[in-house]
Design goal:
alpha/beta, 18 strands, elongated, three-stranded antiparallel beta sheet
Length: about 325
């Protein structure tokens, strides 16, 4: 494929979706991320798009919201890895809320196997994914159907959440920054997401690396309210995504990073909880956190240890005690 043809296809994808990762662009045009990055720079120089944290977005700073058909084909491997990891945070018999989105839909498919679960949602897609789960109770909000993402919004949805209390809220969005937290491009969706957050003791954000550093119009969850972020491993060259993760961790967000099948494991990654083909990296909390599990300092990876690693750690602790 000639450069002009590649760039036209890249431009059409960005116009159709609002934001596309370099990884996804490289897959569609069947070339390397290095070549795609060069094409994106050329298109940016012409003012046709903007580069943004491992991807490309429409020019103008704030990205617009894509419809469900476009979103469902973006970063599918990343969303699957994130959903696999996030499902491990839900215990038998819990009551949770799950917001609208393609990533939360993937999570719902995995929650169908958790017995005794109660899921409150404003998403028709989440409810559909759980409709045939024998041991999961689904409670839907009221509201007006928003067809672009199959979600119930408006005052009816918000009022139905008043007085509700659950253990965790799982939310996605259009962008995530350390400065503003989670945001979305639609005012009605943002308002319902805020109501979902108010109902939960802990807030878990599901966001792939293309959303890191992206800012959109309406804030839904401030950074200081986010308990945990579940994301995927950013590309090695995406320094800005790593910087954003650092800033989020510095503000007290516990971060779990899931690798994608076939992808290069990041530093501190280890297999185990998310399945043999995936990697997980937990970044400990730097300080006290609202209802959040774990505590620590800085952007430090806490990996799952095997038997030998656990034994070595125990020996080191004993040696340290003896020195004291």
């Amino acid at each position: 494929m000639f450069a002009a043809e590649r760039r036209q296809l890249i431009l059409e994808m960005v116009r159709a979706n609002g934001a596309v990762s370099l990884r996804e662009l490289a897959r569609v045009v069947q070339t390397s991320e290095v070549t795609v990055r060069r094409d994106v720079r050329a298109l940016e120089a012409e003012g046709l798009l903007d580069r943004r944290h491992g991807g490309a977005v429409l020019p103008g700073g704030f990205t617009r919201e894509s419809g469900f058909p476009q979103k469902s084909h973006l970063a599918t491997a990343e969303k699957t890895a994130i959903a696999d990891l996030a499902a491990g945070l839900v215990a038998e018999g819990e009551a949770i809320v799950v917001g609208a989105g393609t990533t939360t839909q993937e999570l719902a498919r995995r929650l169908a196997r958790v017995p005794g679960l109660t899921v409150v949602t404003n998403s028709l897609l989440v409810a559909q994914a759980l409709a045939h789960a024998n041991r999961v109770e689904v409670v839907m909000t009221g509201g007006t159907l928003r067809g672009s993402n199959y979600a119930l919004v408006g005052s009816g949805a918000e009022q139905s959440l008043q007085g509700l209390r659950v253990s965790k809220a799982f939310l996605s969005g259009s962008g995530l920054t350390a400065e503003r937290g989670l945001s979305t491009s639609n005012m009605l969706s943002a308002s319902v997401d805020r109501a979902l957050v108010q109902a939960a003791a802990e807030v878990v954000v599901l966001a792939d690396h293309t959303k890191l550093g992206t800012d959109t119009m309406f804030q839904t969850v401030p950074t200081d309210v986010i308990t945990r972020l579940v994301t995927d491993e950013p590309p090695a060259h995406d320094d800005r995504a790593g910087t954003e993760l650092q800033a989020l961790a510095d503000q007290g967000v516990q971060i779990a990073v899931a690798g994608t099948p076939g992808g290069a494991p990041g530093p501190g990654s280890a297999g185990g909880e998310a399945g043999p083909a995936r990697q997980r990296r937990d970044v400990a909390l730097p300080g006290p956190r609202r209802q959040g599990p774990g505590a620590g300092t800085g952007f430090r990876a806490a990996t799952a240890l095997g038997e030998q690693g656990a034994a070595a750690e125990q020996r080191a602790r004993v040696a340290d005690l003896r020195r004291r």
